[in-house]
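Consider the following input, taken from an annotated entry for Tetratricopeptide repeat protein (Roridomyces roridus).
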Amino acid sequence: MSIPTFTSSRTGTIPVLNDAVDRIIPILAPGEQREFLSKLVAFRGTVEKYGDSPVFLNALDGVPAGVTAAEAKGMVLDMCNWKIAQGLRYSTPSRIAEAVPYIERVIAYFSEHNEPGVVDTVPEMYLGVALHKMAGQEDAALSHFHLAFEAAPRIEMQFHTQLWSRACYARLLRRMGKTEEAVVQEDMIRDWLHWHPYGMPPDEFIALVSDPEHEGKDHILEHPDVQNRMDSMVQIGPGMVIHFG
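Applying the prediction step yields:
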């Protein structure tokens, strides 16, 4: 079988197992997002059920030649798991907490195919965020955040995910009474904004580092340095910002 497709006026007809899920989901309406992800989850179930068959796998697009059926099945399931996790993250509202089992499988697959001690930092950040949304999972979330940020101690590559996950990490630390540790993360986020005034539009930064479900003071966005920085930034179009001062 071929990979199922999804059709929308915004995207045209596209395969649901798509490298651009993180860019596709945000432009869809919430109902379309759910339809897309439902098709992707259903396809994952089909791969799980029939993926041991070379005939089934050979019919899929994008499966590399020269691998065993078991290897191909594992690769396709890993792609499905990661794209589902991304889709849940970027849904409106975010459904990241639902992504836990998929992210755990991504991390397990990575661990099986890499040397001990090598950390797949972005999925670890995702898992920390997902778990911090779940009551009783605070310590588990901290463990994954620690693992991710020890391996990626600075906000450099993947800075969107870094900003998003570090903001969640900071809120979790404050919730657990670890204020000094939270301030370290908040300072890193503010420093990034200070040194990257053209890094992203204000609305994108706000969306990354805030949480609509959070109650109480926003220690990142309500900080005077961030307020001053935001006051000096003007968004002039999608993805475009100018800075005064």
